[in-house]
Amino acid sequence: MRLMNLVMDDIRPFKEFAVKTCKECRFSHGGHMFAAVNGNTVNVFATYTCDNIANLRGHNGKVRSVCWSADDSRVVTCGMDGAVYEWSVRDAKRIGDYVLKSCNYTCAVSAVEGRGTYAVGSDRKLKEIVDSNVVKELDAGGALLTQVVMSNSGRILFTGSESGSVQAWKYPLTGEFTDYPCHSQPVTHMAVTSDDSSLITVGDDGLVILLDIRDKELRGAKRDRELLPFAEEILVTRSDLEEKTNLTNDLRQKVDELNMQNDYQLKLKDMTHSEKLKELQDKMSQEMEAEKARFEALQADKTDTELEYEERLKTTEERHTQQLQQMEATFNQKIMAEVERYQQLVEEKELLNERWDEQNSLLVESHERLVQELTDEYEYKLQEEQLALQRVRDEKEDLVRQLEETKKQVEEDADLEIEELKDKYEVKLAAEREQHLRLKGESGILRKKFADQLKEMEDSKDDNKTLLGKQTELYHTIAMLEKEITGLKKEIRERDETIGDKEKRIYDLKKKNQELEKFKFVLDYKIKELKRQMEPREEEMQNLKRQIKEMNAELERYHKDNAELELTLAERRLRLEGQQKEILQQRQRLKESHAATELYHKELHAVMQYITEPKPLKEAVKALYQRHVTTPPHGLQVDTDMQKEYIRQREYLEKTVDALKTKLDKDLALHHTDSLRILQDNVALIKEINELRREIKALKQVGLH
């Protein structure tokens, strides 16, 4: 048989006893003793020393049941020999017995109040035995009872039968019971919890059943009785405690290592992020240079095409102006000749003057109309050429706008990555600040508690001093009572003043001040009664001595608590200092990173001022690269998506340039066809004018004849 200790997370053997095949063992109600069945003998042991207190011998057969009385002074046993014995633990002697050899008793229980014993056995009877005599025999409906147990309040008796049912008997026994079917095989053991709320039964069917006990009288009795609360302490072995301390030390070391590793990882991440930022900046600068070169090439092509188009436009305009001037000169000359000839023929053809004037005016009007139509047509064509030129300029502006948008997108992507890093470090800084504030709040609470305890200690010291003064005053002779009364009155006035001061200081001391005022009034009353009552005063002096001892013990306890609080406060301060140092380091790193990024932004903004000037821009970018890139990047990798976007933009720009070139060729061809058509129209008009001249000559000749 082993006595085990129930520790925090294990059950450890404490002592082994030379008791074999022990099937019944019961602890006393106080827990300081336990009884174990060893065949036909019952051994009683001390729980704390494990000494064998008594050996109860007397049974001829195996002992089946052991039960302690309510005061742990007696033990009731029953066995297969048909005997029920009552033993005195102190004397290890039998003080009562009842023997019925025809019956094999399986269980016996002692009454909570009185000296009665209840036993069940193979005779199917529940017996109540008082002073070695059977007082009552009750039948449970012909069922074979195997177990019996009584509630701790002594109001209900429970029995278990061979059929597996449980009977609840009303106490005192009247023969009335209630049967509850539970097990399918005989009940082997039964027990009631300490608060009489549950009944636990075990049977041969392998079941453990928990039954709820509900009884109004039992509940009322349980409320009246004050039960001890469950202990909150647990047993821990020294090895487990050492393991826990070693484990906590290891965990602290691991935490320190993890903190160092996290710091190192953060540094590595900062370095990688800075390298990535440098790579992105280099990539952006390279792409900007490439885009600028492409833009310059496109702008050069555009200027070339504009110059070529302007030259062609100038040549066509000059050619048209020359042709128009020639036509005007020839027409002016012809008109002057006709006018001269007309003046010569005016006199000759006075009759036909009006008709010829009318014809001449009609011809002039038609000529002016034709000239106006030609000028309108040429102006319309000139407007179309200007619109085409405006469209080319708009397309150029669209290309410039697209280039600026791509440049803005690249800058925004870089800014977004920088902002994400900034937000990430700000979140970490906020978490560190919250932890710092929480630790600061805890330290403030501990300081307040420590200050309150110091104040309470000072108040208790003042109370001790006043009580000591009272004790010395009470030890004086009775003849000096009048002087003591005057001294006490002075003390009462002083205490009134001190009470007024304390009421102004702290709200928490109001209760104590009220108690002191009550105590003051009690002292006044006792001072008046001291002349007539001496014995109550001596008793009061003894009570004051006892109170002084209690207050001294309480003061020692306060000293111990203060020492523990000082240790915990020192530990918290050390932790707080370490965390403050870490926070300062993190802030310093964050400030350095912010300063570096701000410096880079300023320098980048200064570089962007040279965006329209390639050479200063190139020099400024080189200087920026030399200032910020200390180590060249290794293995620069370009994102595939960015490459695809760059290729797509390049193809789009090339397609737009080709479309502009084809459109320009078409416009030139249309202009050439228009110029040819105008020349043909001019030739046709010249032919018509020549025909009209011939007709005029012919008419003149006819008129002469």
Automatic annotation (TrEMBL):
SUPFAM superfamilies, per the entry: WD40 repeat-like (SSF50978)
Renumbered ranges of WD repeats: 56-97
Protein known as: Cilia- and flagella-associated protein 57
InterPro entries reported for this sequence: CFA-57, WD40/YVTN_repeat-like_dom_sf, WD40_repeat_dom_sf, WD40_rpt
Database matches in Pfam families: WD40
UniProt xrefs under PANTHER family: CILIA- AND FLAGELLA-ASSOCIATED PROTEIN 57
Coiled coil ranges: 241-442, 527-582
Gene3D superfamilies assigned to the protein according to its UniProt record, in alphabetical order: 1.10.287.1490, YVTN repeat-like/Quinoprotein amine dehydrogenase
Protein's UniProt keywords contain Coiled coil: yes
Keywords: Coiled coil, WD repeat
